[in-house]
TrEMBL record:
Keywords: Flavoprotein, Membrane, Transmembrane, Transmembrane helix. The keyword Flavoprotein applies. The chain crosses the membrane at residues 12-33, 130-151, 172-195, 298-323. Residues 495-593 form the FAD-binding FR-type domain. Residues 341-480 form the Flavodoxin-like domain. This is PepSY domain-containing protein. It comes from Spirosoma soli. The keyword Secreted does not apply.
Amino acid sequence: MTISVWRYSHLALAVSSFLLLTLAAVTGIILAFEPVSQKLQPYRADNFSQLTLAQTLPVLKGNYSEISELTVDANQFVQIKGSDADGKNLTAYVDPQTGKNLGTPTRQSEFFEWVTALHRSLFLHETGRFFIGLTAFLLLLITVSGTMLIIQRQRGVKRFFTRIVRDNFAQYYHVVLGRLSLIPIFIIALSGTYLSLARFDLIATEKVAPKIDFDAIQSKPERALADFNVFKDIKLSEVQSVEFPFSEDPEDYYTLKLKDRELAVNQITGDILSEVPYPTTVLLANLSLDLHTGRASALWAIILAVASGNILFFIYSGFAITWKRRANRVKNKYSADESRFVILVGSENGSTFRFAQHVHQQLLKQGEKSFLTEFNNYSVFPKAEYLIALTATYGLGEAPTNARRFAAMVEKHQQPQPVRYSVLGFGSHAYPDFCKFAFEVNQVLSQQKWAVPLVDIHTVNDRSPDDFGLWAEAWSQQTDIPITASSELLKAPTPTFESLTVTSNTRTPQPDGTFLIRLRTKRRHSVTSGDLLAIYPANDHRERLYSIGLFDKDLQLSVRLHPGGLGSSFLHELTPGQTIRARIIRNDHFHFPKKAPVVVMIANGTGIAPFLGMISQNKQQVACHLYCGFRQSSSFNMYRNFLEESQATQKLTQLHVAYSREGDKQYVSNLIARDSDFIANTLATQGVLMLCGSLSMQKDVLDLLETICQTKLNKSVSFFQSHGQILMDCY
Ligand SMILES: Cc1cc2nc3c(=O)[nH]c(=O)nc-3n(C[C@H](O)[C@H](O)[C@H](O)COP(=O)(O)O)c2cc1C
């Protein structure tokens, strides 16, 4: 059964009952104070629980001339009805030990009477009772569906009480308080349902009348009350009421209504004339009344009041959650058939929609035709040129409900034209399978013939505006369509630019057009290899990003000169001493891993740049294996000395180079295929693979890794991606 079935049942039940539930909860809170206030009255005997009928009845008979009935209420106050020495009618609370008159019982206060009637029947008699009974039953179902939702959210019964990740106020406390008050609310609902069923005779609660053989009644031996064995055995705490014999005739007897049975006792001999146990249905009805009203315990009454208060909070928070989800429903200006941009959203609780809407609105503002929809609505998009897939991950690294059918839909609907896609995963490092579903989406898309990768998959941790901004920048750079992270989304200070001084520039490009440039920053401590440098070659909004390799105080960029390329031409012309305005962007997801026993670096072309810096910074001599691919050996020559020196100082363990236009004409993926056992072993022993370079290299390597992971490790590549063991930064 999917999470959505429980969720929709939970919601439907809540919607259908919330008005009556609110009323029942409010009146329930008020009524919980009645037992508490009653218990504060001074009518309970100190040693009540030890007293037996054999101790109590003779004392009371001695003190009062006539007693017709003795009752013990839920507060353990003993009350008698009869007449006093002057023959006047008497109803009084008495001390069962001394017989002292403690006071006269008063009627329930009018206010509590009024609230009780409202709580039980809405002043509508049987109709009202029916609706209240139905509400109790719906609450029972809500509790069951809520429990299932918590189990699914926590990934299993065993983890029911483990830490809850805080999403937002309403959601967090809906779950936290839901767990805490689950049992009291379940009891309130079950007992309320039971009492209603009993009230409508759907459960038989008839007590069986005593069967007395009047012919067998004895009048000898005569015994004193205190010597009746049956009275010696019965404690006052077991008694509901004792009806005294009407006359001294031996055929009149004591009727004892206990908690679990009814007895008839000969008033002269003390013999038991009849003993009838109550049916289980009656016992359950009594128990339900105790549990539903809290009449037997002030502490339980307070727990019931708190649980009823929580029901009110659940009504509020439940609707707040639903409101937020519904607020994200999509209204499109352009149809799926006419749009150039298609934005797919996978979201459970709506926050990913906020980011998607943000992108969508910016595209519309720039006059683009953009269509936003849920993953499950994926179909053929005949005019689409760009596909942006934004998705959260849920459960055990699973798809959100509105993205479950995605893989099947992609199989079914092939796009007729090439579409450039980009995947942005939303998740949280609080979960072991970080953004797993997004990685799966990326994998599925990468296998489609029509799909052309535009930007490497990016992830957003805990809705971080900075992470989102990083993707927006990369995407804008590839499309030349500016998408910014608005201040509303960013809620972070505007970027700070800094001036960097050029310290060296090889300028003379290698045959493949690559050159190395070094720049010095004053804020060296806040940058590391794998971060990005954003430059503004034309001093306008156009930004170009380069991966940084850190060498002591310098940031080294490896740049390929593209004829007419905005960024590469600009950098190529720079000479030592010149300064440029730039911005360093932290790229946490592509930093050298802090704990990995082995790091395998895979690069092609200028993708080697961050790895050069990482190797240079590898003072701890963590085992590092570099696999890199170039067109020809001359392209590699500019790195050769540095890498050979690094091997000598054990900052680099092994170096593997592939040339695509020389010798064996190999790609870096061929080297990975050759060393597939080593790669699998690295992953199996918590090592980390890092990929940097072109998207086409990334695709080849990922396809290969998928096969390696499946065949050698029995897991998907997305498992290792989501566990931070495969890091990528490709372009
Ligand atoms: C019950 C639950 C399970 C989650 N499981 C994962 C997970 O396995 N991996 C992950 O990266 N994030 C996980 N998350 C975090 C969400 O993906 C993240 O908060 C996301 O931003 C929510 O987006 P949404 O509001 O659009 O649904 C989980 C969140 C919740 C509430």
